[in-house]
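Quick review question:
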């Protein structure tokens, strides 16, 4: 059994609503834009990068990288750097192949970013492929499921006012959800008021989380962290610039609210100092950036430090979501898994059979591999 073809497919789908709210009226659909106070680039489209790995017997495995901007970059890396070393290799040799891919550009300093995104997509495709070859769902290959369903939280609440966010949250409460994450970073008073409005409306039993998108200084984060602890917030995500591990460690020591971090990191090597310095109470690697193999290793390392996992899951369109559900089912130290309804709806449009998230839980795909198949004709119509 050997790999005969590796194909990368960039994708763009027009959208009307983003994670952080509507698309700015002045945004050029053909260009990326920023959305202050956040500094990152955003797109007017859902963008992603798929990889299709085929064996000589015609068995196909699908992978996906988290590629919210410039998916062509990930695809170029897959086709020019990774595909040649995967060709004619045995897909069962997953750990060997991960290391082969990782070593290609390691000594040149490419052990993060787009390079690891591309490796992650291929790694996920290889897991899907092995599941199909062995007639097992991926969670079984990972050692089994610790839970029958995966608990989730609603991420974003993309509405401009506190009243509208509360109204949207209450709609989800009626559907059985009881955990919510707010996009913050609008100033200490505004962020506290936003969380308090939800706490007042939803009561003490609701799980509330806050994502600050790295906009605060240490002193500001300490002030906000104390207020969030008083409001019973489940975690305070991305409060300070991601490179500043020391400040996160000082913050974690100063406040009672758990500090969450991880969507910027790709490997166990990058997460290790966060654990050693006690800089994060909850780790948030993204399968679309770290891959199934590496997230499992990160989870095992975190378990040794009694640290929980809340995998990041933002704009993955189907394959990435399914892969993350399998990982979340198979790790013992899961806290919650992210759920973005607008993204989930678009993702299901690309799948032959939809994924399910209801009453606050993901259903675990039980068929072989990742348990999902892309509608390839639909995918080709939307190919970037």
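Suggested answer, residue by residue:
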């Amino acid at each position: 059994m050997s790999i005969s073809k590796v194909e990368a497919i960039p994708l763009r789908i027009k959208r009307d609503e983003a994670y952080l709210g509507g698309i700015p009226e002045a945004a050029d659909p053909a260009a990326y834009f920023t959305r202050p106070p956040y500094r990152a680039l955003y797109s007017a489209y859902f963008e992603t990068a798929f990889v299709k790995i085929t064996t000589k017997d015609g068995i196909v495995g699908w992978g996906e990288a988290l590629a919210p901007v410039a998916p062509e970059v990930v695809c170029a890396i897959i086709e020019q750097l990774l595909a040649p070393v995967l060709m004619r290799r045995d897909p069962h040799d997953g750990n060997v192949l991960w290391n082969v891919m990782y070593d290609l550009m390691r000594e040149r300093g490419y052990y993060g970013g787009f390079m690891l995104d591309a490796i992650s997509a291929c790694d996920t495709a290889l897991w899907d492929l092995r599941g199909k070859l062995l007639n097992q769902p991926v969670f079984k290959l990972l050692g089994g499921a610790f839970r029958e369903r995966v608990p989730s939280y609603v991420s974003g609440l993309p509405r401009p006012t506190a009243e509208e966010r509360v109204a949207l949250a209450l709609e989800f409460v009626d559907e059985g959800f009881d955990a919510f994450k707010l996009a913050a970073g609008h100033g200490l008073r505004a962020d506290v008021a936003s969380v308090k409005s939800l706490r007042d409306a939803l009561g003490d039993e609701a799980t509330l989380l806050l994502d600050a998108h790295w906009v605060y200084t240490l002193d500001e984060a300490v002030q906000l962290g104390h207020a969030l602890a008083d409001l019973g917030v489940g975690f305070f995500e991305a409060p300070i610039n991601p490179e500043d591990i020391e400040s996160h460690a000082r913050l974690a020591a100063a406040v009672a609210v758990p500090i969450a971090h991880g969507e910027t990191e790709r490997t166990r090597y990058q997460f290790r100092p966060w654990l050693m310095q006690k800089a994060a109470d909850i780790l948030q690697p993204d399968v679309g950036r770290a891959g199934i193999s590496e997230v499992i290793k990160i989870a095992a390392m975190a378990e040794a430090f009694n640290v929980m996992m809340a995998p990041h899951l933002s704009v993955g369109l189907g394959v990435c979501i399914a892969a993350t559900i399998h990982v979340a089912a198979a790790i013992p130290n899961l806290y919650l898994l992210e759920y973005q309804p607008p993204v989930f709806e678009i993702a299901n449009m690309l799948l032959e059979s939809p994924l399910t998230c209801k009453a606050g839980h993901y259903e675990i795909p039980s068929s072989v591999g990742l348990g999902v198949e892309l509608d390839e004709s639909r995918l080709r119509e939307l190919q970037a």
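Why it works: Residues 140-370 form a domain with the TIM Barrel fold (CATH 3.20.20.120). Residues 167 and 201 are 9 Å apart (CA to CA).
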